[in-house]
From TrEMBL:
<keyword id="KW-0812">Transmembrane</keyword>
<keyword id="KW-1133">Transmembrane helix</keyword>
<dbReference type="Pfam" id="PF01569">
    <property type="entry name" value="PAP2"/>
</dbReference>
<feature type="transmembrane region" description="Helical">
    <location>
        <begin position="20"/>
        <end position="39"/>
    </location>
</feature>
<feature type="domain" description="Phosphatidic acid phosphatase type 2/haloperoxidase">
    <location>
        <begin position="30"/>
        <end position="91"/>
    </location>
</feature>
<protein>
    <submittedName>
        <fullName>Phosphatase PAP2 family protein</fullName>
    </submittedName>
</protein>
<dbReference type="InterPro" id="IPR036938">
    <property type="entry name" value="PAP2/HPO_sf"/>
</dbReference>
<dbReference type="InterPro" id="IPR000326">
    <property type="entry name" value="PAP2/HPO"/>
</dbReference>
<feature type="transmembrane region" description="Helical">
    <location>
        <begin position="77"/>
        <end position="95"/>
    </location>
</feature>
<keyword id="KW-0472">Membrane</keyword>
Length: 106
């Protein structure tokens, strides 16, 4: 399966590099981290779910828009979302562990 050629022999899907979805990955990580801190201050479980669902929905729709604009392959977008989500889970785990140990020392 070859890439479509654009002007100057460059790929029509991004810059031709592997996994060229840095902006989508950073956007997903930003939205998830932002929603995490918003959720920490919320008391309602339904409100927490709504904030998290909004962040995930917006991230997925950003990925879909990149596919429909022929900027990325679907596999690239899926890989970027999985990498970003994995990174977020790691960051949340470390944050909870560090903040939990800091509270115990106080």
């Amino acid at each position: 399966m070859g890439r479509r050629e654009g002007k100057g022999g460059k790929s029509a899907y991004g810059r031709g590099s592997k996994l060229s979805i840095r902006s989508s990955m950073v956007g997903l990580i930003f939205l998830l981290v932002l929603s995490f801190f918003i959720m920490e201050s919320m008391l309602s479980a339904n409100g927490r779910r709504a904030v998290y669902a909004r962040a995930v929905f917006q991230s997925v729709m950003t990925g879909v828009s990149r596919i429909t604009a022929a900027a990325h392959f679907p596999s690239d977008v899926l890989a970027g979302l999985l990498i970003s989500f994995s990174y977020y889970i790691l960051c949340e785990f470390l944050y909870r562990r560090i903040s939990g140990s800091a509270q115990l020392k106080s």
